[in-house]
Amino acid sequence: MQIPGSRPLFMLSFLGCAFLTGMALYFEHGMGLEPCPLCISQRLVVIVIALFSLSVVLHNPGPKGLRIYGLLTALGGIGGAVLASRQLWLQSLPSDQVPACLPSVEYLIEVLPFTELLTIMFSGTGDCAKVKWEMLGISMPGWTLVAFIIYALFGCFELLRKREKNV
Q: Is the pLDDT of residue 129 over 90?
């Protein structure tokens, strides 16, 4: 069995990101689950990975470009995995050790300086410790962690993949 070329795999990667983003929007708007700062940060990472993947599909780079996109995808997957792991850690804390909850992200954007907002977005708040949805006993950040690990492995595969001169 031959492994598909990079473009079809990156298209599959893009479609996976589109699915994850669609599900996040469904949870937010369809089910009324308000996203916490770490959820929004993870969403942004998924969108960045989607843009890298779509760029490969549209741009059709050569071997060197594919390695660069593979590296960027791997870094995105690792970054997203760190964020998801942070949220899982917050969810595992006893209730007396959970950080304080803050106002909505929209309000924080209006009132906080950009650097302080980034710190909150990437460190999380008490809202991030609430388990709002589970499937098979795994919370939403657990499933995004699985997805980010897959994207990191896919990026590493594309980075290290042996290629013909005419890809």
A: no
**Is 56 within the bounds of a domain?**
yes
Is residue 73 a contact partner of residue 53, using CB atoms and an 8 Å limit?
Answer: yes
Position 167 scores a pLDDT of 45
Q: Is-above-0.90 flag for pTM?
A: no
The number of residues in the chain equals 167
Q: How confident is the model at residue 2 (pLDDT cuts 50, 70, 90)?
A: confident
SS3 category, 93: coil
Q: How far apart are CA 72 and CA 66, in angstroms?
A: 10
Whether 62 is in a domain gets the answer yes
As given in the structure block, the two tokens for residue 101 are: 């909850």
pLDDT surpasses 90 at 36: no
Domain count, the chain: 1
Domain CATH number, residue 44: 1.20.1550.10
For residue 14, the tally of other CB atoms under 10 A from its CB is 20
Q: Residue 42 and residue 118: Cα distance in Å, rounded?
A: 13
**Separation between Cα atoms, residue 76 and residue 16, nearest integer Å:** 14
